[in-house]
Amino acid sequence: MKKYNFAVVGATGLVGRTFLKVMEEYNLPIDNLRLFASERSVGKTLVYAGKEYVVEPLKEGCFLGSDFALFSAGGSVSKDWAPVAAKEGAIVVDNSSYWRMDPNCALIVPEINIDDYKGKSRIIANPNCSTIQSVLPLKALDDEFHITKITYSTYQACAGSGIKGLTDLENTRKGEAPKFYPHNIAETCIPEIDVFGDDGYSKEEMKMVNETRKILHRDDIKISATCIRVPVAVGHGVLMQVEFEKPVDVVRAREVLAASEGIKVLDDPKNHVYPTSTVAKDNDTVYVGRIRKDLAVDNGLLLYSVADNVRKGAAANAVEIVKKIIEEGK
Ligand SMILES: NC(=O)c1ccc[n+]([C@@H]2O[C@H](COP(=O)([O-])OP(=O)(O)OC[C@H]3O[C@@H](n4cnc5c(N)ncnc54)[C@H](OP(=O)(O)O)[C@@H]3O)[C@@H](O)[C@H]2O)c1
Predict the structure, then answer these.
(1) Is 168 in the same domain as 257?
(2) What are 40-49's pLDDT values in tens digits?
(3) How far is the CA of 289 from the centre of ligand 1 (A)?
(4) What is the tens place of the pLDDT at every residue in 197-237?
(5) Model pLDDT for residues 88-128, shown as the tens digit of each residue
(6) CA end-to-end span of the chain, whole Å?
(7) Where in 271-328 does DSSP place strands (E)?
(8) Which CATH number goes with the domain that contains 59?
């Protein structure tokens, strides 16, 4: 079997470390692996498949010989270095938001639109975490009933802010003052994720609006979103209020969701069965439940999805993209 050379940029971070875990679990055919992070981490070691690797600094030429480069070091690193990696011969899968809406870059959830990368840039974007766990069920429902409108409300875990977010949750739970979030995350939900625009929407909310349309190839869907940080370590929740062109049927909706790749329906609320962060943590399934008719509109459904935002919302989605490209014989 052919083996490939990999680079991981941001390897010491929350997503970077999870990349290494998922790459090993998914048994990627890796020949050579190189790990990169900021100057602060140069010389540190990380373990992959029982072997230690030394963290290196980014520099011109460092991607020569790499077939794939997985980036999770923030937007400015991706802006500057993803084009370098692509020029030096690697296929880049980037976790930051920087390239997502670039018309030349595919934005991929592998179960939905893996073919979008063909004929496009060597930089492939991984979508926003909350978007990934939303579009998977939405794609199944769109195929069946044709979506016209979506209203998202998110309940996003602190791991979505990386190591700094998790540390602030841990420290504020111990009674310390918040150092990262603008309020005490141990004591309150915070309706602020990423920076706000003049229209009152945050960047995170607009990522969900724009990325959903791009992945589903449906620029015509009306979408709005409200994103809220909650005092949970890992596992985002997203409530979706969805309207359709065709009449909806709850039983049929459950059937099409249950038959979809990557989704597990947990929907027996009277017996306390519904998606929770604890069920989703440390695995790559998108859990969907609380599926019911929306009483406020004619052809509407309400549903709630939960997934591990660091795995399915970031690392596992990216590794699955690479796996599918390899299977297609890159
Ligand atoms: N957390 C999530 O659930 C999630 C989901 C989807 C997408 N993402 C995206 O993934 C990226 C990383 O997120 P994270 O949660 O893993 O953050 P994190 O835990 O804070 O890790 C950031 C990583 O980037 C590295 N880095 C920072 N500045 C750098 C520089 N100038 N040059 C090279 N490396 C640099 C850090 O290295 P040092 O350790 O040396 O500082 C670290 O490895 C972000 O773009 C984020 O938006 C995160």
Answers:
(1) yes
(2) 999 999 999 9
(3) 31
(4) 999 999 999 999 999 999 999 999 999 999 999 999 999 99
(5) 999 999 999 999 999 999 999 999 999 999 999 999 999 99
(6) 13
(7) 286-293, 300-307
(8) 3.40.50.720
Between the CA of 241 and the centroid of ligand 1 the distance, in Å, is: 31
Question: Which residue has its alpha carbon closest to ligand 1 atom 17?
Answer: 162
Task: Collapse the DSSP code of 89 into the 3-class scheme (helix H, G, I; strand E, B; otherwise coil) and give the result.
Answer: coil
For ligand 1, the distance from its centroid to the CA atom of residue 37, given in whole angstroms, is 9
- pTM, full prediction: 0.97
For 313, list phi and psi in degrees, rounded to 5. Answer: -80, -5
Catalytic sites, residue numbers = 129, 236
Q: Which atom of ligand 1 is nearest to the CA of 310?
A: 3
Please give the tally of structural domains in the chain: 2
Name the band, by pLDDT with cuts 50, 70 and 90, for residue 330.
Answer: low
In ligand 1, the atom with minimum distance to the C-alpha of 10 is: 43
Domain that holds residue 39: 4-127+314-327
- With a Cβ cut-off of 6 Å, ligand 1 is lined by 10-16, 37-38, 40-41, 58, 72-75, 77, 95-96, 129, 159-160, 162-164, 309-310, 313-314
Q: Say yes or no to pLDDT of 305 above 80.
A: yes
- For residues 113 and 247, membership in a common domain is answered with no
Q: Collect all residues with Cβ–Cβ distance below 8 Å to 256 and sequence separation of at least 6.
A: 140, 141, 143, 144
Ligand 1 center from residue 218 Cα (angstroms): 30
CB of 286 within 8 A of CB of 307?
A: yes
CA distance 223 to 328: 34
